[in-house]
Amino acid sequence: MKVAFSTLGCRVNQYESEAMTEKFIKEGYEIVDFNGYADVYVINTCSVTNMGDKKSRQFVSKARRENPEAIIAVVGCYSQIASTEVSGIEGVDVVLGTRNKGDIIYYINKAKDEGKQQVKVGAVLKNKIFEDLTIEDYQDKTRAFLKIQDGCNRFCTYCIIPYTRGAICSKNPIKVIEEIKKLAENGFKEVILSGIHIASYGDDFEVEDRTTLVDILEQIEEIDGIERVRIGSIEPNFFTEDVVNRIFKLKKLCPQFHLSLQSGCNATLKRMNRRYTAEEYEAIVDLLKSRIENVSITTDVIVGFPGETDEEFAETYKFLERIKLSKLHVFKYSPRKGTKAESMENQVDGNKKEERSKALIELTKRYENEFAKAHLGKTLEVLFEMASKEEGVHEGYTKNYLKVEVHSDKNIRGQLLQVKIVDVKDDMAIGELV
Ligand code: SF4
Predict the structure, then answer these.
(1) Could you read off the pLDDT of 147-176 as tens digits, one per residue?
(2) Which is it for strands 143-150 and 169-170: parallel, antiparallel or unpaired?
(3) CA 370 to mean position of chain CA atoms
(4) Which of 48, 153, 154, 160 to mutate to test the pocket of ligand 1 (most atoms within 8 A of CB)?
(5) Selection from 301, 270, 283 nearest residue 367 by Cα
(6) Which of 193, 248, 268, 305 is most buried, by the most CB atoms less than 10 A from its CB?
(7) Which of 10, 12, 80, 161 most suits a substitution to test ligand 1, by most atoms within 8 Å of the C-beta?
(8) What residue's CA is closest to ligand 1, atom 1?
């Protein structure tokens, strides 16, 4: 039997697809490309933008064309938020919500045996139970993502995630450490801890024996074989003085943090319901830069949020110019059905969003080039994680996530090697093995 996956959206979805893949492999399935014949198609959907919904529907039609007899399962955020709509799509056999992915094989078999559609979408808003999925090995990768947290209770006004992913919940810390040890045994040198709102890891545990994200990071220091740990996108407020004092001592934690900013203007941040001011964000950036050597800080910025005037955007631009990060991910605001921001007044014209996005893309090119140039002449440790792009050319990342290219005739994939940075091309450092 053949199964094909299509995964939309974030790293958490990617993790969950990998975990489902392992379940299928254990059941004897062969994993095949989505653009071809399979007996089962799994579409792991995203609902962050309205486009995610549209794409998910397109994937269902595609799977149906590839094999009209196949079992098609639609799982994840889109089926969670719109289960009636998804189950009404012609040809869908299984519909599972965000916390029912572990049961996928059971429902696929049930749909096959009973010849009728199976829908299992639990209520998530008050569900504090973490769905335990595990991954021991990754298909074709040298670093592993590990989902340790789910859900979000922040309710930013533009975001649908709290409604699709539900209440915050965390993976049992003992299981987190066990899973990382298993990955280390399978040869992984780097793990990336991720979640929907990873800063709230542990907030759902009893206060008396609460394990926090920093506790987990400290325990990973003791795991043989794991050389690097990264944490996924995180709220700036996580970095209190105490947290920085503790993580500063960790040898394996990579000095690379993605701190969501979204806007550098306090009025815009307030309308977004972000719970920090631009000044607080800047203080955290300063603290990290002053305490952690070679730290790289990247961020997300949304342009054209409802009510963002030229003056407000100028404030964001000036703010970003001043605080100097390593990279910006720029998003043009797009209204998401079911969120507060969708019905806010003064929606911003598409041309304005385009103009503002271009300005920030120019700024990030400058940031990225300056970040790469700051490493010229230095010798750094690089993990070569990708297959060779072309004969003899290899790419990898430093601890602070600088992309490095080297030439070598050897197969260096999966190895941690010392590299001297000798040149820079745009955002890419060119190095020589030492
Ligand atoms: S913090 Fe805000 S943007 Fe991030 S998942 Fe939660 S609600 Fe969405």
Answers:
(1) 999 999 999 999 999 999 999 999 999 999
(2) antiparallel
(3) 25
(4) 154
(5) 301
(6) 305
(7) 161
(8) 154
How many angstroms separate the most distant Cα atoms in the chain?
Answer: 65
Residue with the nearest Cα to atom 4 of ligand 1? 197
Backbone φ/ψ region at 318: left (φ over 0), alpha (ψ -120 to 50), beta = alpha
The fraction of the chain above a pLDDT of 70, given in percent, is 98
- The answer, yes or no, to whether any atom of ligand 1 lies below 6 A from the CB of 154, is yes
C-alpha distances out from residue 386 to 16, 183, 339, 372, 409, Å:
22, 18, 38, 19, 15
Report whether pLDDT(77) > 60: yes
How far, in Å, CA of 207 to CA of 219, rounded? 19
Mean pLDDT (the chain) is: 92
Residue 33 pLDDT: 95
Q: Which token pair is 421?
A: 């940075």
Q: How many CA atoms lie within 13 A of 197 on its CB side?
A: 20
